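3.2 Worked example (two chains)
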Amino acid sequence: MVTRGTLLNNEPLAKYTSWRVGGPAQHLYIPENKADLIEFIASLPAGEPLYWMGLGSNLLVRDGGIRGTVINTRGRLKEMYLADSERVYVEAGVPCAHVARFCADLGLTGAEFLAGIPGTMGGALKMNAGAFGGETWSIVEKVEMINPRGGVIQRDHHEFEVAYRSVKGLADEWFLSAQLKLNKGNSEASQQHIKALLEKRNASQPTNKPTCGSVFKNPPGDYAARLIEACGLKGFAIGGAVVSEKHANFIENRGNASSEDIETLIEHIQTQVQTQFGISLQTEVCRVGDKA
């Protein structure tokens, strides 16, 4: 098989994740562009397990690594352009923060909240990522999907069941791109809004530490961070993983954490919140791979 991208075998994934942890991928493919990715997926053997990574945030790769093929879109699938006066085409590998600024520069409003999401559009589409009260699928009109045979499918928003940090209806398909529907606004106002949101984020979140973003979903009518802090868990550590002193819904890698440390800490937090408040915290972070 001739590919234009880069295929790596037994490639350690820690350097590709924002937590800086994770075992090796059996195969890691970095496509040259969308067309190359489509050809590569079409060439894979039937039943090959397929995983996707963008910026590696919201992702815990276990220490035993991943059997199968991991597609890394970081720095790839990066095309973005104005489709018409109120619509933006964006591929899955574009960082959400870039989308926010691109739309603001064009004088389109509604995507400012994306500046607070530390991942790519592909990941944001998969989980309906949100920040500052905004959610990804509130601005999605239609998407382009790819199936395990390399077939490309166009789907409308209404074909998915979208809820808080949840998107159902994917069924062995993955996101290649999206068309966003926005409103005409004022470029300067949007840029100032983004600036204010980022200042708020930097003041309240450990943005300069190795984290995955928010670990847990907020339960209805409450906040995961409040519950975790109320359990006295700020600063609590297992191995190299510690609950952030700045924001209790973040787990930091102090530099020597393993995936097992992080996962054990996640489960400890869940147990403590369940015991003290009777609330079952659900993870926002996606856990993949095998334990060591």
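3.2.1 Second chain
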Amino acid sequence: MQKSLFSKAMAAPLDTRPLAARMRPSSLEEFVGQEQIIGPGRLLRRAIEADRLFSSLIFWGPPGCGKTTLAQIIAGVTRSHFVSLSAVLSGVKDIREVVAQAEKKRLQQQRTIVLIDEIHRFNKAQQDALLPHVEAGTLILIGATTENPYFEVIAPLLSRARVFVFQPLTEEQIRLLLDRALRDRQRGLGTYPASLTDDAWRYLARIAGGDGRNALNALELAVLSTPPDAEGNIVIHLEEAQESMQARVLLYDRDGDAHYDTISAFIKSVRGSAVDAALYWLACMIQAGEDPKFIARRLLILASEDIGLADPEALVQAVAAAQALTWVGLPEAQYHLAQATIYLSLAPKSNSTKAYFAALDKVKEAGIAPVPPYLKDPQRDGKAQGHGQGYKYPHNYPGHYVEQAYLPVELSAENFYEPGEQGREKQLASEWQARRARKTID
């Protein structure tokens, strides 16, 4: 009985492609997401519907958000000659062949649109090979990329294209895709008596990370691997959903935008004393495979740039965490990185170390002023020239301090250091501030 029910449920579509490929939308009406680009009345939608696409396009966004799908929809509705290339598999030779075809089509009064998927994988020479033909209007380029085109696409090519930024799909949009796939009997899983529990729905929509392809692949795996119950129904519970998609896909490239954006969020969270946020961004980086030494270096910088003398112990904590990382390594060093992150987030803040850069600006502006003679080194040949004469040795005076000018005469009125008023620095600088006040009065 169980075998016959399972066989009945397995009335699979004849198309053996993955579910995500079978369910790829073929029209703008089926397209899900990116309303800011392709919604009713939007510029790109109007151009596509009117078949008036005259400028090249760059589609930039995360995986599974519809970049290639939209390009293929354009191919389906346009009267232009459409060619699709993969930057992984194609080279300059392929580009030349496409250009030769495009020139023939142009003589026949037909435009050529070329889709280059993963265009960021084209090197500079390959992109240069496209440039004169895009500029001349021989072909219209649609480049799809998951990487920042402002870094990965050469500037001359980029200046001749319109960049459209795609967003990850929302959980509601992911659920719409899954529901459509479950009901579609021609391309989807509609021939299977399959359903999902509420927990399974929520899990797949959330854990897909905005990637429609990832969600559809997980749904297909869950349906095909789950045997029917006694009534012949395939019910996907949370457990089956979790087995089909065991880990959220983290959109993180150690050399791309996610790397810089995430570390920026981490730095700003520590600086802003937002300990929970700092721990969250730390966890994101560790989970995504960020180099822990890079994180440790940022903690070392934060300890002096944003905390400094408000809590000198912060630098000790950061150094200790970096040292522990070299001795222990991951995963155990997560404790040390977390400890330093918490300490630095909670510590009082001061950016008074920027006083150094004020002094540096003065050096760049006016050059290096001569050292006053009494501050020069008398140990070498300078004694006969009066080097060191008149220098007051502070330890010979009460309190180990004596009034004395240490800056060149022309800079005697300069004040670079402005102490913070938080934590230890307020105490450390109080006596110095009093001395500076007395000096000003004098």
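3.3 Remarks
The first helix runs from residue 2 to 9.
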